[in-house]
Amino acid sequence: MSWYPSLAGESCVSHNDAGFAFENIPCLYPNTLGKTYFAFEINYDPVSLRDKMSDNPWIPMVGIVLYAVGIIGGKKYFESRPAWNWRRSMAMWNLGLSVFSTIGFLRTFPQLMHNLLNYTLTENLCHDPESQYGSGATGFWVQMFCLSKFPELLDTFFIVIHKKPLIFLHWYHHISVLLYCWHAYTTKAPGGIFFSTMNYAVHAIMYFYYFLMAVKMKPKWFNSMWITVSQISQMVVGVAVTILGFILAPKFEKECALKSENNVAALVMYGSYLLLFLQFFVARYLSRPAKKSTKKQD
């Protein structure tokens, strides 16, 4: 349980409140990454909040119930009322999420690369994340990633008040990712660093695109199709990581921290996302031109 890498020597080894040994990424690279971190990140200990999350699995359930009630009630309210114009607030909201996601990516990506370059894929998918990436500076941003799925539910608020179409993919994604992230984090899923880093990267671009759309400053070359492509790529990698988990876990010499129930949930989630995003891509970017060409021929 006290596994930790030994590349930087014991000078970089710390222990979190649960007694797990870990190396803090700023200490591993003091002359580069280390200079960019704040003290609160380096000294952050996620154990107390993580334990509270583990002891209260009802919180995400209440969150999605309130989310569903808000959608149903909001759509009912606006049936006979004009849409609100909160374009400026929506722009600032999207910009804020883009900045947050960019910082999150810049904090988790170095840890992911460090792990991939120095440890086998089996070790990355089996070692306890509390020692590998779930503590210290990276641990803070992984924890914030999971908790950010609550405020991200407000994306739907702007759709409802502006009376825009609310597709199944949108609300299904918000509900399922919230439930999965909470479960994966509290059960310490080793693959979390892959998922959080990818999601941070895609969201950084996606929300910035939404911001530019809201303020009507989107350049012509910034095609929304590439955002969908990045989302599909994320789902492909997600499916691949979960499948590799099933293959590599039995080969691990020690007890693998990967739990089958969480990995099954990840496969179902990413697999369904992949199908839905592919369907969305075909309907939005491939079907419409075909229809136009058909009309011209008629």
UniProtKB/TrEMBL annotation:
Localization per Swiss-Prot or TrEMBL: Membrane
Known EC number: 2.3.1.-
Statement: the UniProt record of this protein carries the keyword Transmembrane: yes
Enzyme class: transferase
Alphabetized UniProt keyword annotations: Fatty acid biosynthesis, Fatty acid metabolism, Lipid biosynthesis, Lipid metabolism, Membrane, Transferase, Transmembrane, Transmembrane helix
Domain of life: Eukaryota
Membrane topology qualifier: Multi-pass membrane protein
A Pfam short name: ELO
GO terms (BP aspect): fatty acid elongation, monounsaturated fatty acid; fatty acid elongation, polyunsaturated fatty acid; fatty acid elongation, saturated fatty acid; sphingolipid biosynthetic process; very long-chain fatty acid biosynthetic process
InterPro entries on file: ELO_CS, ELO_fam
GO molecular function annotations of the record: fatty acid elongase activity
Residue stretches spanning the membrane: 58-78, 90-109, 191-212, 224-247, 267-286
Keyword presence, Secreted: no
Catalysed reactions listed for this entry: an acyl-CoA + malonyl-CoA + H(+) = a 3-oxoacyl-CoA + CO2 + CoA
GO cellular component entries: endoplasmic reticulum membrane
Family recorded in the similarity comment: Belongs to the ELO family.
The protein's name: Elongation of fatty acids protein
Organism: Cylindrotheca closterium
Top-level taxonomy: Eukaryota, Sar, Stramenopiles, Ochrophyta, Bacillariophyta
